[in-house]
Specification:
heterodimer; A: mainly beta; 11 strands; B: about 120 residues; mainly beta; seven-stranded mixed sheet; four-stranded antiparallel sheet
Chain lengths: ~100, ~120
């Protein structure tokens, strides 16, 4: 069954590097997509691809069936839900259940 | 950046009635639009993919006669939940892209549907 797995909650202190892990069992999917979602707002794409990449404070690691989102110098304002999604391309994304990030001062 | 809006943001309806949700791309032409549903503590599940001017492609297990999708223009897609029942209560979210394949999906803010 095509599934994407990620932890339900991750907690961190301000200023630290946070890692959110994701792995999948999706056949023919070799791209990862990481989205940021504040309740009531539209999910926003942070970083994507089939290789390690970085966009500002967001780093994405890449293995064939797993990826981690690393958030550098995490802030309280980063507290939100982060979704990992997988797909062969953007036509059909399989989403994880989301990871709620808690940031403590 | 690309903006996608949804209307309404939340709706409460009685069982047996129909509800229409609109998804609009505000500053780009959306060749393809996607409709997702999310139940509490579950992931965003793709319901259907629609291309402008053609019939939507529904995912397995999604009733096309219950969830009517219309994508009549490059900036508007609608999802109509017909004869809604309490089990249809969910968070419905759309996304839009300028094409297929490598084009990014831009998401709307979602619509919370509650059926009483």
């Amino acid at each position: 069954k095509d599934q994407v797995f990620q932890p339900s909650t991750v907690a961190s202190s301000e200023g630290a590097v946070v890692e959110i892990f994701c792995n999948h069992s999706v056949s023919n999917a070799y791209n990862f997509f990481w989205y940021l979602h504040f309740p009531g707002c539209a999910p926003r794409l942070l970083v994507k691809g089939s290789k390690p990449s970085q966009q500002g404070r967001y780093n994405m690691t890449y293995e064939r069936f797993s990826s981690s989102l690393l958030i550098l110098q995490v802030r309280e304002a980063d507290a939100a839900v982060y979704y990992c999604a997988c797909g062969r391309n953007t036509d059909k994304l399989i989403f994880g259940t989301g990871t709620r990030l808690q940031v403590f001062p | 950046g690309a903006v996608v809006s949804q209307h309404p943001s939340w709706v409460i309806c009685k069982s047996g009635t129909s509800v229409k949700i609109e998804c609009r791309s505000l500053d780009f032409q959306a060749t393809t639009m996607f409709w997702y549903r999310q139940f509490p503590k579950q992931s965003l599940m793709l319901m259907a993919t629609s291309n402008e001017g053609s019939k939507a492609t529904y995912e397995q297990g999604v009733e096309k006669d219950k969830f009517l999708i219309n994508h009549a223009s490059l900036t508007l897609s609608t999802l109509t939940v017909t004869s809604a029942h309490p089990e249809d209560s969910s968070f419905y979210i759309c996304s839009a892209s300028a094409g297929t394949g490598s084009y990014e999906q831009y998401f709307g803010p979602g619509t919370r549907l509650t059926v009483t």
